[in-house]
Amino acid sequence: MKVTQVAVRPTEASHDAGRPALTPELLAASGARYSRNNEGLEAILSKIDPDNLDKSVDSIFRMLDYGHQSIADMVPVAMFMDGLSLWLAYHVWTLVPTAGGQESSTRYIHYGADDIADPAALGIPEVLHGEWESLQRESYRAYAEALAIWQRIADDAPDVMRLPRSLLEDTSEKAQKQVARMRRNYGFDRARNFLPAAAATNVMLIISARAWSTLCQHLASHPLPEPQKLAELIRAELELAAPRMTKHAAAKTSMRQGIARELEEWSTLAASPLPEYLQENATSFAHPPTPFLEVFPPSGATPGAFAEDLQFHDNRYAWIGSTLRRTAVRFGWEAVALAEIRDLNRHRTGTKWCPLVPAGFYSALEQLPPEADGKRLHELSASGRRASARARELLQNGDPSFVYWNLLGTQFPFEHTTTADKFLYEAELRTGAGAHFRYAQHLRDALALWYEKFPATRGLVLEGSAEPE
Q1: Which positions ≥6 away from 222 have C-beta within 8 Å?
Q2: Shortest CA distance to 287 belongs to which of 277, 297, 296?
Q3: Residue 289 in 3-state DSSP?
Q4: Mean of the pLDDT values across residues 8-16?
């Protein structure tokens, strides 16, 4: 695992125009100075000693500290984090949902079994090392085999990819490269469910120093060694960009207690009988993702208000009226694969709730064309079901390392509480061009419930068809 803080430098145009360039903490201190006087930026910058930038922070504003959180929010820091597990990347996003950033995508990248993580570094109990490593190898083999099956299906029946006929018939090099990329993505989209949650990924985030400190508090307080290691690496890099914040980037008693309590709650939920979708004799492997939608309009809202709010809504970033913006919405599904949760979780607004209690295993079996022989995929799905059931068993026993036994196809409950305008934005985005087929279906199902409640909005919500791009 490696973490690298990356500083932002001025563009040539900014430099040539004589614009100031400040360190992250100088930027925050200069902004904070505005709260004490109205002398203007030039007067503030005149206090900077170019030979001692760090000392200049305190000469401008002496209270740059965690106790003044709005100030710490003005300290932008970017970091690139290489080699953390898919689970830890998901966990980080749950803690900083407003972050800007990206993660290596399982939809575009091929994964191999060459770099199976050290089980001791993940906190897997020593007595389970052999079993866990065997599961990792089995899962990577299933991934490779499933990928080959889906690529063969795409070769034999190109229509399943829903590619434009004009593109398939275009013999130009550019078009053929695009078709090859989309064919690969078709296979990755469906095979990725067999990838272990312990597989390595890379994440880039740009957030405030305050957010980095809070993230470190959560990670350092976690019982597993991988998040603790990430906290240690982040803290060392934070020292370079915002040294005044590092004293706050440490484990906290309340965080430890809260994380332990949450694990106890999940363990209690996991103690219920094993869902039929994870049992050895299951005939259906995927727990149906039954959606739910609760809508709480503001007092006095008229029946036609929602449709009126969408009358100028010509793209998903366009205007939405105030009644929808004031309407609370809670929606979700009984069981969503971790592969999709990783994307759904990154919507920035509101609160997400996802107890990591395995409820089923999804492997895209319903995507098989009628003429395809799905016997082998059904057999592979059984291995995914066993892995998910084993994770649930370890959770029952209170072992926090159960997270590394799950696969991306392991399904969990997922709930999002936000406002109606943000719900509709998410539905439009996640059913639009290039959307993954599975979460597009989840959002279409949720929109169907919305239309039942508010039929006048049908046609005004810009629901997409998730066409490939």
Answers
A1: 228, 259, 400
A2: 277
A3: coil
A4: 94
What are the start-end ranges of the E strands in 302-428? Answer: 328-337, 351-353, 360-361, 410-419
What is the dotted CATH code of the domain comprising 1-104+199-251? 3.30.1360.170
3-state SS assignment for residue 206: strand
The letter for the amino acid at 175 is A
Tokens of 297: 């309009």
DSSP string spanning 334-345? Answer: EEEEHHHHHHHT
- Encoded amino acid at 415, one letter: E
- Report H helices in 276-319: 305-309
What's at 38, amino acid-wise? N
Q: In whole angstroms, how far apart are CA 193 and each of 8, 26, 344, 380, 444?
A: 37, 46, 16, 11, 21
Q: Which residues of 189-207 are buried (b: 16+ CB within 10 A; e: fewer)?
A: bbbbbbbbbbbbbebbbeb
Structure tokens at 401: 């390392």
Whole-number average pLDDT of the chain: 92
Q: Sort residue 373 into left (φ over 0), alpha (ψ -120 to 50) or beta.
A: beta
pLDDT band at 62 (very low <50, low <70, confident <90, very high): low
Four-residue CA torsion sign, 195, 200, 201, 206: positive
DSSP-based three-state secondary structure for 454: coil
Q: How far apart are CA 250 and CA 329, in angstroms?
A: 35
Nearest-angstrom CA–CA distance, 149 and 363: 12
Strand partners for 81: 3, 203
Residue 295 burial (CB < 10 Å; 0-12/13-18/19+)? middle
**Cα–Cα distance measured from residue 45 to residue 30, given in angstroms and rounded to the nearest whole number:** 8
Question: Domain residue spans in the chain?
Answer: 1-104+199-251, 276-457
In sequence order, what are the residues at sequence separation of 6 or more whose Cβ sits closer than 8 angstroms to the Cβ of residue 114? none
Pairing verdict, β 2-6 and 328-337: unpaired
DSSP state of 88: H
pLDDT of residue 242: 87
Q: Which of 344, 367, 396 is nearest to 286 (CA)?
A: 367
Asked whether this chain's domains 1-104+199-251 and 276-457 adopt the same fold, the reply is yes
**What is the pTM for the complete model shown?**
0.93
The per-residue pLDDT for range 69-125, each reduced to its tens digit, is 778 788 899 999 999 999 999 999 999 999 999 999 998 899 988 879 999 999 999
Q: Which helix (H) or strand (E) holds 182?
A: helix 173-191
Cα four-point dihedral sign 91, 237, 220, 195: positive
* pLDDT tens per residue, range 370-391: 888 889 999 999 999 999 999 9
CB 450 within 8 A of CB 293: yes
Q: Does 288 have pLDDT greater than 60? A: yes
Measure the CA–CA gap between 371 and 361, rounded to whole angstroms: 23
- Topology (CATH level 3) of domain 276-457: Gyrase A; domain 2 (3.30.1360)
